Amino acid sequence: MGIRFILMVNKQGQTRLAQYYEWLTLEERRALEGEIVRKCLARNEQQCSFVEQRNYKIVYRRYASLFFLVGVDNDENELAILEFIHLLVETMDRHFGNVCELDIMFHLEKAHFMLEEMVMNGCIVETSKANILTPVQLLEKT
Amino acid sequence: MGSQGGFYQSKEFLDLVKSIGEARSKAEEDRIVLNEIETLKRRISEPDIPKRKMKEYIIRLVYIEMLGHDASFGYIHAVKMTHDDSLLVKRTGYLAVTLFLNEDHDLIILIVNTIQKDLKSDNYLVVCAALNAVCKLINEETIPAVLPQVMELLAHPKEAVRKKAIMALHRFYQKSPSSVSHLVSNFRKRLCDNDPGVMGATLCPLFELIARDVNSYKDLVISFVSILKQVAERRLSKAYDYHQMPAPFIQIKLLKILALLGSGDKQASENMYTVVGDIFRKCDSSSNIGNAVLYECICCVSSIYPNPKLLESAADVISRFLKSDSHNLKYMGIDALGRLIKISPEIAEQHQLAVIDCLEDPDDTLKRKTFELLYKMTKSTNVEVIVDRMIDYMISINDNHYKTEIASRCVELAEQFAPSNQWFIQTMNRVFEHAGDLVNIKVAHNLMRLIAEGFGEDDDNADTKLRSSAVESYLRILGEPKLPSVFLQVICWVLGEYGTADGMFSASDITGKLCDVAEAYSNDETVKAYATTALMKIYAFEIAARRKVDMLPECQSLMEELLASHSTDLQQRAYELQAVIGLDAHAVACIMPSDASCEDIEVDRDLSFLNDYIQEAIEKGAQPYIPESERSGMLNISNFRNQDHHEASSHGLRFEAYELPKPAVQSRIPQTLIASTEIVPVPEPMYPRESYQTTMPSIPSDAGSAELKLRLEGVQKKWGRSTYTPATSTSNSTSQKTVNGTSQGDGASTVSSMRETYDSRKPQVEVSHEKQKLAASLFGGSSKTEKSPATGHKAAKASSHVVEKSHVPKSSLEVASEKATPAQQPPDLLDLGEPTATSTALQLDPFKQLEGLLDATEVASAVNGAPAASRSPDIMALYADTAAGIHNKNDADLLSGLSNPSVTNMPGTTAMPQVTQSSSKGPNPKDSLEKDALVRQMGVNPSSQNPNLFKDLLG
After folding, report:
1. Residue B940 to residue A67: CA distance in whole angstroms
2. What is the pLDDT of residues B677-704, one digit of tens each?
3. Orientation angle between helical segments B288-303 and B248-262, nearest 10 degrees
4. Which residues of B touch A136 (CB under 8 A)?
5. pLDDT of residue B648
6. Where do the Clathrin/coatomer adaptor adaptin-like N-terminal domain residues begin and end (chain B) (predicted)?
7. Span B44-61, pLDDT tens digits
8. What is the percent of chain B where pLDDT is above 70?
9. CB 3.0 to 4.6 Å from A71: which of A4, A87, B499, B683, for a disulfide?
10. Does residue A66 sit in helix, strand or coil?
């Protein structure tokens, strides 16, 4: 499976985007987000960007006020996921131009569309920024 | 293409987002969302809502669910939106539906039709949107409805469609492998797709297929190798480059696949050596992504058939990782070391101090990873240090899940490598004391059994000593305030069996303690039951030894309490105790023989002693006994007999619960019918009995006893030092032999020479004595446990542990020092920080640098007199970001290239591509000013509570 979920959470712990690749109920999501956000936000910047949870790992990265958290299976390459997050941010940056938290909030669906291009069934399927953005930009023109 | 193009949202939506963005607490956010739910409930069901408006409503629903509230009242509207003609509206509808519904939701049936229609669309974007939904919403039952269309789309002219179709098929395979088992060959075909994107995506399903059945895909090794070669040689389109690495994510996936295919297959592995070696050489080790690929190479190398040259490269990379200042790289290094150590155990030695640093690091993630490594490299020589450390750590953490895991690892290692019985008991005591409620109950039973049986050595004296020391330590531990129930059970049992055995403690000492336990843990019936039985044993042994029994007053009051207990079990035990005390010495010795817990209990199955009685009864006209085989209406008693049998033969104690009584449903059925159940069609109520009858005999006698017995033997075998078989692979057997042949120094010289090797390597660094000692004890004999000669049980026993300890092969140290010198040659990762080395506190961590840079901006903007003063000072200090940054985009953008982690890792000149990329975003200052103006116009103002909303993510 690989990726189990992708979360964007600001430093107050408020969810800005959530995409799950396995079904969780609303309550489960809320509990999970609460738990891992508490864990990750408490860590300082010298510490690893990885946190081990029960049977999965969280790879996270902070950009300005926004945390990107990716839950992955235990056999996933953490460094690669860390760079995947960066690729996602670079892609959003190319689209929005100096992307900030508000861009994601105002264009939640677009951020989701980009993710839909990049990740399917919990696997990274596309890493070319042009291929990711083309469908999103075509949508805008309609 | 800035975000301003998308601002056709209503004021209402912008206000919602704004207020959510500015919410200071979860409670405030909840209030806003609950309000929004009320509004939407009213609005969304109004007639004739324009499309754009509806799309906005749906996104507001997404917000509601994302923030943890139920939006199910609006699901149906999201479903309706998928029917829309407008592509944007349709895709938003599909997105919302995939976020809201799981595949078993009732509404899915309404969408399947739409999906079918959209899969046939001429517009490839519509097809893609539908395929996204297929991946999320189609379940096993609906697969056939879309499968034919998805199959057709595999040959679609648009690569984006082919890619998504492959992933849809992948999804079907995940959901129900049998439904697409005849179609898996399509994955192979798509591997040869002209488009690298489709090929890359196909690797995901292939990886899963290969993981399940390696042998069917061996023929693809050559293809995968040649693809990887092409990728590494930059033959793919530049669009897939990431930070100057050619398609790194595809490389990683391919390396994962090769690791599977080459595992234990020399021939397949040989095909891979060249390409993996090339990647080792080519990889840019100064960027995160380069290191990610290198790490994957190490995983691959440690999985495939070993190759000395590749192992050397892997070891070099690992030492670079471990020497790095970045915790992320250290973490990867420790993980990689754990993989490689299985193949070449000697490489651990050169990294001993790095490993100890990680072990003592305050970062919990790193610490745990290091414990995992230590667990993998535990041997009889270092088990004491490692388990000791593990237990200390276990005590210090609160996470029950991890505590359980580490406790069971401690137990496992202790059982496997314990140097002495004393140590074992002490270790188990500590584990039970601090994590007793978390460990498996079987561990407790094992411990009791070990104490009862001794440790497989025929030395009664040693066993007695062991028991005495256990009793002594338990009496001491009982002073502790709160002990876990499982541990108390063990203590009670051992005190009952062996408390008075060596004469050190009197019966009143022990019974007093047992009564204290029963009183202190009066809520725990199991502990009380154990304590009562232990009391009975102590008294019984006293009586049997013909000593006078004085029941302590507290014991008497305890008995009175238990005789009136609500628990029938406790009551029975109390009555039994009372009865035993009243018997004479001979009878007591028969029913409660001392130290007989390991004896088999012989059961007279024919109950022959009752024969006279039966004869008498029959003569008086009683009904004769009908064997159960002739009474099919009854439960099959022979099954229970089987069960008895296996229990008696495997061990004397029975710990598991009794079978639940089976309802005798059939007893009401007339005899005649029952007698011929095998032929006559079985009436409905017979089923439970039938299955019961057939399964019962096999389960307890095979599975059950096998399990119990296995444990028993396993423990004993593990225990004996000599039977330990080292987990070595074929590769190190040669080095082992040479080690065996060389001269051996004593333990003291190990430590000092170890220090020497280290010192000669890095004379300028001073390492604390304590650390060196720890290193020596952890790694001191890392290559020597394998040497224990396989000369049978007796011989091994003769060579005592002390002797074993002193066998330190010098040659292995020499090897270590030899290895250590070249390891210094590759450039230290520390160089990475140098390009921007303005401050001493430079870290590889990109965040740090980002913050540092932003600090600079802030200062600059403050000098310029930009309006940054609206925030409270503590926020300023905590988050070095700036609202003024928006006005000073100029500075920020110039710096944004630098803040990119990849670029900071390289010499300044290589930053060019990044700069060009950011310039391609368009005139940045203008762009951001426009955005800012627009945002202000919409009423969202950076001077309000949460200015962070405006900060660029990339700098």
Report:
1. 22
2. 444 444 444 444 444 444 444 444 444 4
3. 10
4. none
5. 46
6. 40-581
7. 988 889 998 999 999 999
8. 66
9. A4
10. strand
Cβ neighbors of B306 (< 8 A, separation 6 or more) are B343, B344, B729, B731
Q: Which run of H or of E encompasses A7?
A: strand A3-10
Chain B residues lying within 8 Å of A40, measured CB to CB: none
Domains present along chain A, CATH in parentheses: 3-140 (3.30.450.60)
In chain B, positions 22-51, which contact chain A (CB-CB < 8 Å)? Answer: 23-24, 26, 29
Closest by Cβ to B17, choosing from A30, A105, A138: A105
Confidence of residue B639 (pLDDT cuts 50, 70, 90): low
Note whether residue B494 is domain-resident.
yes
Question: In the structure encoding, which two tokens stand for residue B790, read together?
Answer: 């396989």
User: Is B954 at the interface with chain A, CB within 8 A?
Assistant: yes
In a domain, B580, yes or no: yes
**Mind telling me how many Å the CA of B263 is from chain A's nearest CA?**
16
The nearest alpha carbon in chain B to A59 belongs to: B328
pLDDT of residue B443: 81
Residue B229 has pLDDT above 60, yes or no: yes
Contact A109 B948 (CB under 8 A): no
What is the ipTM for the molecules in this complex?
0.97
Write the pLDDT tens digit of every residue in B640-661: 555 555 544 455 566 666 666 6
Query: What pLDDT is stored for residue B402 in this prediction?
Result: 87
Task: Note the pLDDT of residue B657.
Answer: 67
Separation CA B681–CA B644 (nearest Å): 33
What is the per-residue burial (b if ≥16 Cβ within 10 Å, else e) of A85-105?
bbbbbbbbbbbbbbbbbbbbb
Domain assignment present for B773: no
Closest C-alpha among B707, B704, B791, B784 to residue B750: B784
- Kindly identify which residue of chain B lies nearest to residue A127, measuring between CA atoms: B240
Give the residue ranges of DSSP H helices in B67-215: 75-81, 87-100, 108-119, 124-137, 143-153, 159-175, 185-191, 196-212
d(CA B250, CA B237): 12
Range of the domain at B511: 440-596
A74 contacts in B (CB within 8 Å)? none
Q: How many domains does chain B have?
A: 1
Mean pLDDT, residues B938-942 taken together: 59
Q: Shortest CB distance from B948 goes to which of A15, A65, A112?
A: A65
